[in-house]
Amino acid sequence: MAEQVMLPDPELPSFDGWTCPLPLRDHRTVVMGHGGGGQLSAELIEHLFVPAFANPLLEGMADSAVVTLGGARLAFSTDSFVVQPLFFPGGSIGDLAVNGTVNDLAMSGAQAAYLSCGFILEEGVELSVVGRIAADLGAAARRAGVTVATGDTKVVDSGHGDGVYVNTAGIGLVPDGVDIRPQRAVPGDVVIVSGMIGVHGIAIMSVREGISFGTEVVSDCAPLNGLVAAMLDVTLDLHVLRDPTRGGVATSLNEIAKAAGVGIELTESVLPIPETVANACSFLGLDPLYVANEGKLLAVVAPEDAEAVLAALQAHPLGVDAAVIGECVPDHPGMVVTRTTFGATRVVDTPIGEQLPRIC
User: Fold this and answer.
1) Domain 63-173: which topology?
2) Helices 93-106 and 127-144 meet at what angle, rounded to 10?
3) Distance (Å, rounded) from C-alpha 89 to C-alpha 200?
4) What does the domain layout of the chain look like in residue ranges?
5) Equal fold, 63-173 vs 182-347
6) 349-360 pLDDT, tens digit each
7) DSSP assignments along 344-359, one per residue
8) Which residues contact 68 (CB under 8 A, 6 or more apart)?
9) Contacts of 240 (CB under 8 A, 6+ apart)
10) What confidence tens digit (pLDDT) does each residue in 204-231 have?
């Protein structure tokens, strides 16, 4: 009897033309790593979503798209939040839903003006929980100076959700003369971080796993639009801004290095890592460079602007601990390395998945 040959379904995407690196090809189903912000996430976007949606606006691969509408330049972004637990030291999924989208818009230089908000509720979740999240979301919007202008609510069967998921989308105006995107990093540029790193991820882990690190670690969840406005008051010529959320500082810098075709060199001894985060990471076997943040930004600026931008950051309540942590170099384009305290150099690569899943 002749062997049957199964023909591919023309309605489904073909995996046969996909190229290395291989991790995504090894998975015929979605795994948690695809949502972790690392290499698996990047491959999923690059090989599946970008070809499906192909258009010039997606090519920038920034935190928000900058579009022109009626003569105005608008930043437009959307984000979904599935964090567990729903409440944590320093915030909740409601705070994250506002600050995450406000910050994505701010990374294009825009002041968020309006948000949409979609709630996906699991049957059986207590209304008091939903009410508390909604109250947190509303309060966070007022603090950020943004209006929740429209929304939607859906309910899924018990066991088919995880209590509450939230999606927010936002728009904001981009000031004239501002051109912030990862492709603008050039050799000689200075890399600045706005404060202590790794705090949010450790705060989530401490509550989720019931681990005490000797003191309570509080999330840095905060809106960064005011901080960005202070930087733009110094210079409109900010080259790159990124908020290092999933995948942490390491992943964001790798994305910038690859987009701009530059190398990035960090100095380990000046990285602002709080002692609680360093101790927790040592205990858990994590690297703080890969731990998520929700209230910090990375800025890549021209060397002649670095001192003034750093001073503007340090003068703002959310940037008191800002520091210069490295520079862009012509060597090893597309790679990030760090100079260790022992004088050696190590490669800071993009992780395959995520050290701490479900942190936003």
Assistant:
1) 60s Ribosomal Protein L30; Chain: A; (3.30.1330)
2) 30
3) 9
4) 63-173, 182-347
5) no
6) 987 766 666 788
7) -EEE-PPPSS-SS-S-
8) 74
9) 180, 181, 182, 184, 185, 189, 256, 260, 298, 299, 300
10) 988 887 877 777 899 999 999 999 999 9
**CATH architecture of the region 182-347:** Alpha-Beta Complex (3.90)
Distances (CA, A) of 209 to 36, 195, 206, 213, 354: 18, 26, 6, 12, 16
Question: DSSP state, 294?
Answer: S
The predicted model scores a pTM of 0.88
Query: Which residues does 309 contact at the CB level (< 8 Å), separation at least 6?
Result: 192, 231, 234, 235, 238, 299, 301
- Contact criterion met (CB below 8 Å) for 56 and 250: no
Entry field: residues in the chain:
360
Which amino acid is residue 353, in one-letter code?
Answer: G
How far is residue 77's CA from residue 6's CA, in Å, rounded to a whole number? 41
CB–CB of 37/251 below 8 Å?
yes
CA–CA dist 249, 323 (Å, integer): 13
Alpha-carbon distance 147 to 328, whole Å? 37
